[in-house]
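Subject: Sanity check before I submit

Could someone independently write out the structure tokens for this chain? I want to compare against mine line by line before I put it in a report. The sequence has 299 residues.
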Amino acid sequence: MQPDSGQFLMKNLYLAVLVTVLVSLCAISTANAQSVLFHGDTPPGRKRFEIEAVITCYGNRIESTETVGDEVVFLIGKEKIYYRDGKMLSEAQLMRSEKFDSIFYDYRKGSISINHDQTPFPAHRSSDFLDALIGNTENKVRKNSQWVHFLGHRVYVHHICVDPLIEIDRRIREHSVHSMDVRNFLKNIRVMYSMKRRHVSGTNNMSYHSYGLAIDIIPRSYEGKHVYWRWSSVFMEDWGRIPLSQRWTPPQLVVDAFEEEGFVWGGKWYYFDNVHFEYRPEILLLSEISNSESWDRKE
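---
Independent answer below. Compare away.
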């Protein structure tokens, strides 16, 4: 159901208050933070922000959160997921924690004007958190997924993405009334790809497509520009320096609409994938907090 203007206003007000509350949590006492978030010692700095972002974005799917020794533990269904230095691991994976990378990364909302610095690749990301949160088999994911009409096409996504996509659709259609770029973007869409169980190409990481949390918007034409780092790397050794002006890019209003509803855009990754959007509200929330606070602020 499409939200009316009153619901939309209340949602924006809620998000504004939410960010303010999370930022202000750095200044409140440990005891108060425990009562709001979890039982046990409150972790400092970035660790605390990451934990709070997970609870804020997925709290309705998390039964409880507590500290056990030096570990922060999320109970999701019957599965315990341990936070360790940005890694979200099942108990079985704790002994191998050094083999995994953090699931969190810095992301800048809004427009960008320079290429991102090189980052390690491939990141070895454990799928334990998403397996517990969404489902560890295609059948389990499909039980909680559905078709959604989106920008004149249909995408098959997890229920968690349905309301955000409805709102994104509304925003983009509204922008198309006044923006020729957005209208041309909509006319140029050839097909969309959504849920498909697979790994990220060249890695052992499960793609967010596997969980119904990502969509690829494929245009009729890339206008002779670059769109995906792996394709460009075949014939360009220095593909990371391809100017943004030479990459196919959705209009900024489209990217903004996705980001406002919790989706990150793959065009902002060093290993760019400019047709790709995936649902990572915790990454967007961290972006909001990092613009206001230092990761290393002490209690």
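---
OP: Matches mine. For the report I'm noting this point. Strands lie at 64-68, 71-76, 79-84, 87-90, 145-150, 153-158, 189-193, 214-219, 263-265, 276-279.
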